[in-house]
Design brief:
- It contains 20 helices and 23 strands.
- By secondary structure, the chain is an alpha/beta fold.
- The strands form 5 sheets. It has an 8-stranded mixed beta sheet, with helices on one face.
- α12 packs parallel to α14 and α14 packs antiparallel against α15.
- The chain is globular and about 75 Å long.
- The N terminus is likely disordered.
């Protein structure tokens, strides 16, 4: 693959990048049409998002001890304006302004509080009999520590200091557990017997989801979350699910107990929790919580104030829209009409039994609509890329903002549901084995009569407001001639308008970040997260070696054959890595009788390598890694695991 970005400083479009386009007439018309058909002036969500606010972190600014900025909302002051600029979808603008409301909020008087607007996710604090119960301590330790300080300085200063008695991880995504080290230490957990409670399967899912495919997911996440965009009316405004990701350290602590698939009734610090399993919806391991004494339903990420992703743009395993709808219906049957407040791991609460019931009903119907309309059309011959264009938004989406596609969309959720049932292929043999983009692009340019004619066709499509077609045409030109400055700028212009019109924060971010890449105006990410030793050490050793195998260069190593035996004394583990025929296969718990070499190394030393705190040559020299047998064969094998380039190209060849 070409690496055009490495030549950025030498290309004519670098250094003096063109400014972003203004909103076109077609975009302004689309924004006005959407605004006209939605009740954007409905004040109820704004009232709910501000209700119970009692304190805030000044300027929404969180800075780590080393001076690194973890969170800074000052750059988003542009959201204070009530009218949406032409360059932001008016519905997304409304959602962004709601997500921008930050602080400490009292949800149930003197019983439940939330800390919102200091990360992508929300931290909830519940009063138990003798102490605090915390649900979802944010993504990063620094953000969690600052949020907890706000709580302590406000609530504890008034009612008295209490210990943390339990921490609940609602599900296995890191923005709901990564900050745990910011509010408690492992020593506290052990000494004070703090309960850490999670759904079944949590440990495996939490530490492995991004390990095997982490490189590609992380790269795409920069686009999805707009991390390479500056904040502003032409840049990053929101993700839809929350403002953005905090930029601190992701940690981990092992749960002390898990909730079974059947659910459970738990008494936590004298307070009863009715726990329902929700695994296989938004996350493989997930649970929802009901507190009868407070009539409070914590919907985690199963019910939020947007349509969520069936398949996130950064990449993940496809989720099950049918199960998602059925879990919400089970919540509705069990607690609908009884719960007087619903609060989640993102966004703001909903108060009133009737309103909670309506929220659950509408959310259930939105996911069921995605599922059933996909299969209705697929069973009548519609393919992956035809489904969404044949489907109007669900009736509920026109009246309930909580079901709108601010994060997931009807469009890509239907495609994901199709993929879940039928795979990536649409059934047309012409699409079974198409040419790779870099090969087909040159043929399209030739077919068009040359680069100038294809460029002219793309520019004509832009002038006509046909931005999807323009992007398709101009993408061919850029992949055929990646240093074609006019082609790059034209494609960036098409992406500008698609981004401006997008109601989904993720779609907007992806389009505008792609335009920034084409123009060479990407910024250094301010939301890069460092994984802590606690997180790295929690990665199961089998997953560690499976991830290592994905880095094996099969083309260069096809002639290599043999078994390399790893012995990890500190964790009392053994892994036999079998290499043959260009395949590397780790056998966890196996000791080979005749390995090519035996490598003795502590698992903690491997963690040092993963954290970048140690290098293999130095470890060999120091004796931290000991090799018995064919040392040269081991070194040759090890050299066949080159690191992946984390800045690989996404929108150019």
């Amino acid at each position: 693959m070409k690496r055009a970005w490495t030549m950025m400083a030498m290309l004519p479009w670098a250094g003096a990048a063109a400014a972003q386009d203004a909103a076109s007439e077609a975009t302004r018309t689309a924004q006005a049409e959407l605004a006209a058909r939605l009740p954007l002036d409905d004040p109820q969500d704004f009232a709910n998002a501000a209700r119970g606010k009692i304190a805030e972190i000044k300027d929404g600014l969180i800075v780590a001890k080393d001076g690194k900025v973890i969170w800074d909302r000052r750059a988003y002051d542009f959201l204070n304006g009530t009218a949406a600029p032409d360059t932001v979808n008016p519905s997304l603008w409304r959602q962004a302004r709601l997500n921008a409301i930050h602080g400490l909020f009292e949800v149930v008087p003197d019983k439940i509080w939330q800390l919102r607007g200091y990360d992508l996710s929300v931290m909830t604090v519940i009063r138990g009999k003798t102490g605090w119960i915390v649900v979802d301590p944010l993504l990063s330790e620094e953000a969690a520590a600052a949020a907890w300080k706000l709580f302590a300085d406000t609530v504890e200063a008034k009612s008295g200091k209490r210990p943390i008695k339990a921490i609940l991880f609602s599900h296995s995504h890191s923005d709901h557990f990564g900050g745990v080290g910011g509010i408690v230490t492992p020593e506290q957990v052990a000494k004070e017997k703090i309960r850490i409670i999670a759904p079944h399967g949590f440990s495996e899912e939490a530490t492995s989801e991004n390990v095997l495919a982490g490189g590609a997911m992380s790269r795409r996440a920069l686009y999805m979350f707009g991390s390479i965009l500056p904040p502003g009316p032409k840049g990053q405004v929101d993700t839809g699910l929350g403002p953005r990701l905090s930029a601190g350290t992701i940690g981990y602590m092992e749960p002390t107990e898990t909730v079974p698939a059947t659910g459970a009734t738990l008494t936590i610090d004298g307070l009863e929790f009715d726990v329902m399993d929700a695994g296989g919806t938004e996350a493989p391991a997930e649970m929802v919580l009901y507190i009868p004494a407070y009539k409070a339903l914590h919907t985690t990420e199963v019910v939020t104030h947007n349509l969520h992703n069936i398949l996130t743009l950064r990449g993940a395993q496809v989720r099950d829209a049918l199960r998602w709808s059925k879990v919400i219906d089970a919540m509705l049957l069990k607690w609908g009409g009884e719960a007087e407040v619903a609060l989640g791991s993102h966004h703001w609460p909903t108060w009133g039994a009737d309103n909670v019931k309506a929220l659950l009903t509408d959310q259930r119907d939105a996911y069921r609509y995605v599922h059933d309309r996909t299969l209705f059309l697929a069973n009548r011959g519609a393919t992956l890329h035809e489904l969404a264009d044949q489907t109007p938004e669900a009736p509920v989406q026109g009246r309930n903002f909580s079901t709108r596609g601010y994060y997931g969309t009807l469009n890509h959720n239907m495609k994901a549901t199709y993929q879940r049932y039928f795979g990536w292929w649409d059934g047309n043999p012409a699409n079974l084995n198409p040419l790779p983009p870099e090969q087909s692009a040159a043929k399209y340019v030739a077919l068009a009569g040359g680069a100038d004619r294809l460029l002219a066709a793309g520019q004509a499509a832009i002038a006509a407001g046909d931005y999807r077609w323009a992007a398709e045409l101009l993408n061919k030109l850029v992949f055929a001639e990646p240093d074609n400055a006019a082609g790059r700028e034209a494609l960036a212009s098409a992406y500008d308008q698609l981004g401006y019109q997008a109601e989904s924060g993720a779609w907007r971010n992806y389009y505008l970040a792609a335009a920034a890449t084409l123009r060479g105006t990407e910024i250094d990410t301010v939301s890069g997260n460092g994984q802590s030793r606690s997180f790295i050490s929690a990665i199961p050793t089998p997953v560690f070696f499976d991830a290592l195998a994905t880095r094996f260069d099969a083309a260069k190593g096809k002639a290599l054959a043999g078994t390399f035996q790893f012995v990890l004394p500190d964790s009392k583990e053994a892994v036999a890595v079998v290499v043959e025929g260009g395949v590397e296969f780790p056998r966890y718990g196996v000791t080979d009788p005749a390995p090519v070499a035996t490598i003795t190394v502590d698992r903690a030393t491997l963690d040092d390598v993963m954290l970048g705190q140690a290098q293999f040559p130095a470890l060999l020299q120091s004796g931290a890694i000991q090799i018995e047998g064919d040392r040269a064969a081991f070194l040759s094998w090890f050299a066949l695991h080159p690191p992946a380039d984390p800045r690989f190209n996404v929108v150019v060849p």
